[in-house]
Design goal:
2 strands
């Protein structure tokens, strides 16, 4: 599935900052979930909302604060999509 270019750039910027031993797993899991999110929206392209939703639904709580920091650093505006939905 195609990616929105700006979203792909942010995703790559973010995943480059994830510790190496978690990076590949994160890339695969988030990409798969983002694609599922895009399909659920009936979109042919993965967009920022799909990636943000994937991160918030799939990241274990011990990594939550790191995820928030990395999302911010990469330029993802998760608040415009209503995240975080609960306080962790």
């Amino acid at each position: 599935m195609d990616w929105d270019n700006a979203t792909k750039d942010k995703f790559q910027k973010m995943t480059a900052k994830i510790p190496l031993f978690h990076r590949r797993l994160t890339e695969e899991a988030v990409s798969k979930m983002a694609q599922e999110n895009a399909l659920a929206r009936k979109s042919s392209k993965i967009e920022e909302v799909d990636v943000v939703s994937a991160f918030f639904s799939g990241v274990p709580s011990p990594f939550y604060s790191m995820m928030i920091r990395l999302l911010d650093q990469a330029g993802f505006d998760y608040k415009k999509f209503g995240f975080p939905k609960e306080n962790k």
